[in-house]
Write a structure and sequence with these properties.
Layout (H helix, E strand, L loop, with lengths): L2 E5 H11 E5 L2 E4 L1 E6 L6 H11 L5 E3 L3 H14 L5 E6 L3 H4 L2 H9 L4 E7 L33 E4 L6 H12 L7 E7 H4 L2 E5 L6 E3 L8 H9 L1
Parallel strand pairs: 2-11, 4-5, 4-6, 6-7, 7-9, 8-9
Antiparallel strand pairs: 1-10, 2-3
Amino acid sequence: MSTIRLTMAQALVRYLAAQRVELDGEEVPLFAGVWAIFGHGNVAGLGEALQQAGDSLPTWRAHNEQGMAHAAIAYAKAHFRRRMMAVSSSIGPGATNLVTAAALAHVNRLPLLLLPGDVFVSRAPDPVLQQLEAPQDGTLSINDCLRPVSRYFDRIVHPAQLLTALPRALAVLTDPAQCGPATLALPQDVQTMAWDYPADWFRPRLWRIAAPPPEPDALERAARA
């Protein structure tokens, strides 16, 4: 099996850039880009990977995490859930600013991929600037507050976990019934860990998002009501 050695962050960015969708008879990137405010938790790993990606997965800067998440939601809504954007934040208050926007996307079934930085898996150094952790439980970080407002939540503690976590997240983001926010918490040190990823995993994939029509009986009942 042919493999490519990449950091976890590089693999994540390359995978997202390879996702395609059919829109008005034309294949276009599923992800229009990534909104990001860089700080502790996402600058050294994901930030570097996004810089290397360039126009294949554009980075958009903002000044408020909730605002950029709402912008991503508006983009998905304007494209009738057939295109979407990702959002990355730092490890502390930046992540909490995503909660309200995630709740909006959750109740309206709009696709939103959240990529908040997370605490070091090695726990060294700990804590870092602005890190919010639960001192009574070493397994919790502030990103766990995103669990109730995420249709899918995962924390990537080893680079190999991307192989299952990313397809699961994409399956949720492209499902009309299950659609909503998908959160992948990205520990700082794991973002920069290198691993040998299968080359085939990065082949472009075309998503066809179904839009099943309503049942005639349901339409009749609605009309009578």
